[in-house]
Amino acid sequence: MGGQEFGLDPKTVNRIAEDVREVCETGIQLCLVVGGGNIYRGISGAAAGMDRASADFMGMLATVINALALQNALENLGVDTRVQSAIPMSTVCEPYIRRRAVRHMERNRVVIFAAGTGNPYFTTDTAAALRASEMSCDCLLKGTKVDGVYSADPATDPKAERYEKLSHFDVLRNDLQVMDAAAITLCRENNIPILIFSIQNKGEVSRVIRGEGRFTLIEGG
């Protein structure tokens, strides 16, 4: 949403699409999982008194909107892209079918996975860990607002410690709120390293993949 309070900021969407194109041009295969918090957060709706399952489904639909926006931006840059939704909606995108997604990636298409896992009570972080496991990904990159994992929120705690490297177990044991426990556990069980970096910096995706830039590596243990 860029500097807006909600919704889609075209400049931000295009910048992220350019970062993805930069990586694709190196021959690296990418699949993406998008959130929907810029439009609607299911957990916020539940906190306001809405039925949790209904609120979560609304949040999943928001991720489809973001996925279609990102697909449009990528294809305007010449990147062949497919959107697959865990909630079938064949009018606007493909349903999630694992073997079809693998085939798309083999043909060097960027696959954008929308609608989370398709189930309430699971976050898009868990969806990312699930899809990374199903696609046999080498690593999971989480683009967020900060440049790594901190002991506390660096925006409110100036003494927050930044970690360069952690194990999956460290994150779980210390209850570090970078991803939910289900996502961390799934990556741990499937030996998938996680790189936490800031999506706010142009070109950071490519730098992180090269082992440069600023990020926290979560692996092992």
Could you characterize the architecture of this molecule?
By secondary structure, the protein is α/β, with parallel strands linked by helices. It has two domains: 137 residues, Carbamate kinase (3-Layer(aba) Sandwich), CATH 3.40.1160; 84 residues, 3-Layer(aba) Sandwich (Carbamate kinase), CATH 3.40.1160.10. 39% of the residues lie in helices and 16% in strands. The protein starts with 9 loop residues before the first helix and ends with a strand. The mean pLDDT is 94.
Brief descriptors of the model:
221 residues, 8 helices, 10 strands, alpha/beta, 39% helix, 4-stranded mixed sheet, Carbamate kinase, globular
Order of helices and strands: HEHHEEHEHEEEEHHEHE
SS-derived structural category: alpha/beta
Give the radius of gyration.
17 Å
How would a crystallographer describe the biggest sheet?
A: 4 strands, parallel
Number of E-state strands: 10
Write the layout of secondary structure elements.
Elements: H1 10-24, E1 31-33, H2 42-47, H3 52-76, E2 81-85, E3 94-95, H4 98-106, E4 110-114, H5 124-134, E5 140-144, E6 149-150, E7 162-163, E8 165-166, H6 168-173, H7 181-189, E9 194-198, H8 204-209, E10 215-218
Parallel strand pairs: 1-4, 2-3, 2-4, 5-9, 8-10
Antiparallel strand pairs: 6-7, 9-10
Quick summary of this structure?
By secondary structure, the protein is of the alpha/beta class. The protein is built from eight helices and ten strands.
